[in-house]
Structures are given as C-alpha cells and as structure tokens.
Design brief:
Layout (H helix, E strand, L loop, with lengths): L1 H9 L4 E2 L21 E2 L2 H12 L4 E3 L4 E3 L2 H12 L4 E2 L6 E2 L2 H12 L4 E2 L6 E2 L2 H12 L4 E2 L6 E2 L2 H12 L4 E2 L6 E2 L2 H12 L4 E2 L6 E2 L2 H12 L4 E2 L6 E2 L2 H12 L4 E2 L6 E2 L2 H12 L4 E2 L6 E2 L2 H12 L4 E2 L6 E2 L2 H12 L4 E2 L6 E2 L2 H12 L4 E2 L6 E2 L2 H12 L4 E2 L6 E2 L2 H12 L4 E2 L6 E2 L2 H12 L4 E2 L6 E2 L2 H12 L4 E2 L6 E2 L2 H12 L4
Antiparallel strand pairs: 1-2, 3-4, 5-6, 7-8, 9-10, 11-12, 13-14, 15-16, 17-18, 19-20, 21-22, 23-24, 25-26, 27-28, 29-30, 31-32, 33-34
C-alpha cells in the first residue's frame, strides 16, 4: 500500500498516457478524458487508458451496459436495485457510489478543492468547476443530433432532447400537469405543498429549487458571472443574459398565437397570454385580490406591509420597488438625457419623455374597458380602474381610513401630524400637498389655465372648472343618503346634511 499510495502525498505523477499528452485531472467522463495524461497511481493509469483500448471490465447485468470504472458501475447498478451502500456518518444520507459520498461530505466540511484559475471561484466538485469554466470560454460541447443545438452541460442536453419527442410521462396527481422529467415534477409538487427545502444561510430566504437558491446567493456576493460580449453588462443568471442579448439583436422569438405580439422571453409571453384568458393565478392571502403576474402580487403585498426594502445609499430614502429607487437615484445626478424635440423639456427617463410627448400629440393609448375613458399613461389607467372596483389598498394606520392612491394617503397622514412642507415663497402660506401650492401660486400670478370650452370662462383650478361645467350640463352627482336630495358639488351636500344632524357650522 505504501508503494502504491506514496505518490499521492508527493504530488509525483509517474504514469503517463502515451495516447494523449495532457495534465492530470481525474474524472469519469469520456468527453473530458482528453484533459488527463499523467497519473499518481497505477490504478488511475489503468482506468484512464480504458477509453483508448475500449476495455470495459464492469458488466451491468441488468441492462448489458459495461463500464470502464467501478464507481460508474456501482451508480448504474444502484438505479436498478435501489442499493445505496455508502452512508454519510454525519447526516445519514446514502449514495450508490463512493465518489458521490466523498463529494457530499464536502457540504459538511465546506471544503472546495477545485479552484477556477481565471476568477478564483472554488468548488466542491470537479465537474462543477468544469461547467463553471465554460462560462468563461463559452464552450458548448454537447450537441443535439436532431437540431444541432449545443449545450454547456450534458444534463441540459438531456432536458432538451425530450422536447423533440414531447413525451411527458410524469404527471402531477393534484392538478394533472405533466412533465418530461421526474425532478421537474418533484419541484412542481412543492408549489402545492409550499415546501421550500433550500434556505439561504445569510438571510433565511427559502426556495423550492436548489438552482434558485444558487442564483439568489449571488445577490449577497455580488457575483455576476455572465457577461454580454457586446456591451459588457453582467448578469447573475445565464438565462437573463440570453434575454438581454436580444435587446441588441431585436430578436423576439416568442409570438402570441392570438394577437401576433412577440416577446424576447418565453415568460413574458406566458404572462401576456393571461390578458386573453383572464387568468390570474397569484392571489393575495390578505385581501384576496388576484394578479396575472407574481411580481405584481409581490408589489401589491407591500401595500399591506408598508415594507420598503430598497434604500438610496446617498440620502437613505427607501422605496417599495427597485425601479422607483433607480428613478430616485437619478435625482442626485440631475442628469436628464432625454429631451423633447417639440418644447425642449428634458427628462431623466425615456419612458417619461414618451409619456410627455403625448401631451403634444394628444395620444391616449390606454383605454378603460368599463367606461371608455382613455389615458396617456398606463399607470394612470391602473389608478382610474379603482374608481370602478372601489379598491382602496392604502390604509392609514392611525385612523383606518383607506385610499385608492398612495400619494393621497401621504397627504392624509399630514392631517394627523400637522406637517405642511410646501410653502409659498411670496406670502409664506404653507400646504400639505405640492399641487395645492401650485394652485395657490396662481392667486399671485393671476394664471387661469383651465378654460371652459362652452362659455370660455377660465379658472385657476381644474376642480373648479369641473364644478362650473355642471352649470351647463345640469349634472348633480352628489346625493344625500338620508333624503335623496341631489347637488352639483360635494361641499353643498356636506352643508345640507347639517339639516338632518342639526349641526351648526
């Protein structure tokens, strides 16, 4: 034993492969065999040369398949017999092959002996390092013999090959959904049970799938291994890089078969299809409201919790949504690269410029299906819809009063605090809301931008114009809930109600 095992301690590799000249990296896949050439033990040398000679000494009598390596034979045998003779002495988990147990033990010790020479990242398993290296080289050695599509990992090729025969033998006994692979079915079942086996050690967030945990962990480490070779932008996830690349090519391979709208990402197509079906699978467990998209549900939930996880590292202001933080951060730079070619007004975001341009064109592409009212901006339509649904998701924690809009809640809160942050620089009068200050400023300037189209009378405030218009139409939308009398203005019905309550102003 000393003679045979001695070189392992010295690092000496006395056995060289005469078929192929290369550096030693013992593994058990023929695809990777070329990278091995020098060996520390005669046993390693024997195993290595079998792919050259075609010798396969381990016979799988269950399926007539033969193997050049005993570990491969053991693992294959275990798939038929269910035998897993190698047990971890720390957690009791069992394995079909000895090498699999060795790799598993590293999850307890934290050992990561395989390091990437390019970026320094270390791995517990040599095959994981090999797969990682391909993120640097872009190598895709596994090619589909039906369509020619290539993959960096053999497992990904196997998943892809099933898409050609469309066979889905694994069916969920709860909802009937079928899958091509048993592992996909297992992951799907967790959507019914709510089970999340994979937990982040840093923040405690749990996931149904190990791959999702790995991607999430990069949010802590800041690692972005997938880089765009056109613009240099880096991503935590390979699929996100693929979608990003289409912003350069303009490619939109996923097309809706109902309206021909096309998308760069399959997930976006799936979400879009729900606009046709009306499906809203994501339901809020607090208020029962349902959504077509999980991210929309996540944003909605924040209206209940008040959580603002995204904080500006310059001024400390926090936001409920990451996109709102991004918008805010530009206010520190004061950069406004998007300029209107009609009036010269500049904006921090292209989307804001696009919405602004509609004030010139009069375009209102977003129409309410219930009343036909149209809006220049999609967010305005979303807010408007609450008039029909009666939804008031923003609730005051002090008095319980609820509002349709977050901005209205913010203004209302100031009635409790007495805060009036908007002050007139001419007379010193202060207001709870910026729009009130703007209207007030018109008393100094004499500006009256709201004009009645019927009689030409002008007003400083849009709400005053709206009340005036009712003198032409005779509309009286405000009704007393005690006697049924109707009024043109809300203030009139409030005054009238005092007759019933005998309240004196």
């Amino acid at each position: 034993h000393l003679q045979r095992d001695g070189p392992r301690n010295t690092g000496e590799k006395p056995f060289e492969c005469i078929q192929y000249d290369g550096a030693f990296a013992r593994n058990h896949h023929h695809h990777l065999h070329k990278s091995t050439g020098s060996f520390m033990s005669y046993t390693d040398h024997q195993i290595h040369t079998r792919p050259h000679t075609g010798e396969k000494v381990y016979d799988g009598n269950q399926c007539d398949k033969t193997f050049s390596c005993h570990n491969h034979f053991e693992i294959r045998k275990g798939t038929y017999t269910g035998e897993k003779p190698y047990e971890c002495n720390q957690c009791g988990k069992t394995f079909a092959g000895r090498s699999n147990l060795q790799i598993h033990k590293r999850t307890h010790t934290g050992e990561k002996p395989y390091e990437c020479k390019q970026c320094g990242k270390a791995f517990a398993c040599h095959s994981t390092l090999r797969n990682h290296k391909r993120t640097h080289t872009g190598e895709k050695p596994y090619e589909c013999n039906q369509c020619g599509k290539a993959f960096a990992q053999f497992g990904h090729l196997q998943c892809h090959e099933i898409t050609h025969n469309a066979e889905k033998p694994y069916e969920c006994n709860q909802c009937g959904k079928a899958y091509t692979r048993h592992s996909n079915l297992q992951r799907h079942k967790r959507t019914h049970t709510g089970e999340k086996l994979y937990e982040c050690k840093q923040c405690g967030k749990a996931f149904t799938c190990h791959r999702y945990l790995q991607i999430h962990e990069r949010s802590h480490t800041g690692e972005k291994p997938y880089e765009c070779n056109q613009c240099g932008k880096a991503f935590t996830c390979h699929s996100t890089l693929q979608v990003h690349k289409r912003t350069h090519t303009g490619e939109k391979p996923y097309e809706c078969n109902q309206c021909d709208k096309a998308f760069a990402c399959h997930r976006y197509l799936q979400i879009h299809k729900r606009t046709h079906t009306g499906e809203k699978p994501y339901e809020c467990n607090q208020c029962g409201k349902a959504f077509a998209c999980h991210s929309t549900l996540r944003k909605h939930k924040i209206t209940h919790t008040g959580e603002k996880p995204y904080e500006c590292n310059q001024c400390g202001k926090a936001f409920a949504q990451f996109v709102h933080l991004q918008c805010h951060e530009i206010t520190h730079t004061e950069e406004k690269p998007y300029e209107c070619n009609h009036c010269g007004k500049a904006f921090a975001f292209h989307s804001t410029l696009r919405n602004h341009k509609r004030t010139h064109t009069g375009e209102k592409p977003y129409e309410c299906k219930q009343c036909g009212k149209a809006f220049a901006c999609h967010s305005y339509l979303q807010i408007h819809k609450r008039i029909h649904t009666g939804e008031k998701p923003y609730e005051c924690k002090q008095c319980g009063k609820a509002f349709a809009f977050h901005s209205t809640l913010q203004v209302h809160k100031r009635t409790h605090t007495g805060e009036k942050p908007y002050e007139c620089n001419q007379c010193g009068k202060a207001f709870v809301c910026h729009s009130y200050l703007q209207i007030h400023n018109r008393t100094h300037t004499g500006e009256k931008p709201c004009v009645c189209k019927q009689c030409g009378k002008a007003f400083a405030c849009h709400s005053t114009l709206r009340n005036h218009k009712r003198t032409h139409t005779g509309e009286k939308p405000y009704e007393c809930n005690q006697c049924g009398k109707i009024f043109a203005r809300h203030s009139q019905v409030q005054i009238h109600k005092r007759i019933h309550t005998e309240e004196k102003p």
